[in-house]
Amino acid sequence: MLNLETGSLIRRAAFGAAAVPLAWAATAGAALAQEEVPTISAGDTAWMIVATALVLMMTIPGLALFYGGMVRKKNVVAMTAQNFVLAALMSIVWIAVGYSLAFGDGGSMNAWIGNLDNFFLANLSVDSISGTIPESVFMMFQMTFAIITPALITGAYADRMKFSSMLVFMVLWSIFIYAPVCHWVWGGGFLGSDGVLDFAGGTVVHINAGIAGLVAVLVLGPRKGFRTENMAPHNVVLTMIGAAFLWVGWFGFNAGSQLAADGRAGMAMAVTQVAAAAAVLAWMAAEWFVHKKPTLLGLATGAVAGLVAITPAAGFVNPLGAFWIGIASGLICFVASTSMKKALGYDDALDVFGVHAVGGIVGAILTGVFATAAITGADAPLGAIDGNWAQVWLQVKGVLATIVYCGIGTFILLMLTRLIMGLRVEPQQEIEGLDISLHGETVH
Question: Is 1.10.3430.10 the CATH number for 49-432?
Fold first, then answer.
């Protein structure tokens, strides 16, 4: 018969023997949890393929029609050709160096720029994964942003720049301006690390493009006949159709930036519609009050202004915040594209600065006001509406960094292009129209 002391020893030994495999299993489970293997989500992948196609549609045909309808008839082919060729040219630049510079690990320089280890997508394979989607899909989605951003700039200097010079300038701009700013915000650079919020491209796309457009028109000078000739859009219906493509495509732009098919993507889609709708009505009211007539061009431009402004905020704000962002952007962009442009006298042909730079600035700063942890699930307050006013100043920092770098860099690249090959078409070519003089085609 065992005594109590012997029985106690046996029970302790048995417990210890059982604890060894249990402890090993717990340790192994924790290790597996820490080293969870990334897996592809079919739902996320399907959504991101659709979103990528939607964003590409924004440039061709969306932006091509939007801009093509706003220029004079003698420059429609030239305007649409620039947008079409940039879809091809920027695709090659992106796979060659842009993607690597924007999303590569730059080591000691990572706060500013990535590396060239992924030159011509050297490290991209069919098995490469980014989050829950194939890296090839992520790369393509980001490529569509790299396409539309320089395409936006073309509207500012419409009717004036040589086609060949445009191609060279855009290659340089994509590499030396777009890729670094993209890295700052989304690729692990200093703005993203500091907490600047830009869900889908307020700074990376719109402020970047708008500032570049302003610098370009200041360098090139006004169009011949500016303020003395009728330069009204030749076909506002084409512009409206282009705006409709942009509006629909923007759901891929904003909701796709969540990189997943989830509730936050759904909310991004909802607030995009709210902001665009509010901006249309705000622009219409302002135009009706000032000019006594609401125009189709104004309605289309107002929609784009609201879409621009909600871009940085889409994944951070609720519908009420989106409503106020839409109202603010519609009114402020209207003033910037009419009264302010007239007072300052610069010839921004298609209001790229007034809509994209100003709308992007409005949206970026108001993101700091209306961003809320209730949308993101964050534990800490996010924007001023949550009590975190410091976020507003972070947003201002992101805006200023983009303006200064893009403004100076764009000026240098334009001067370099001018030195090498010139920038502006010959006076007679401009008078004749770029369709015939540069492309040998015309519309009827």
Answer: yes
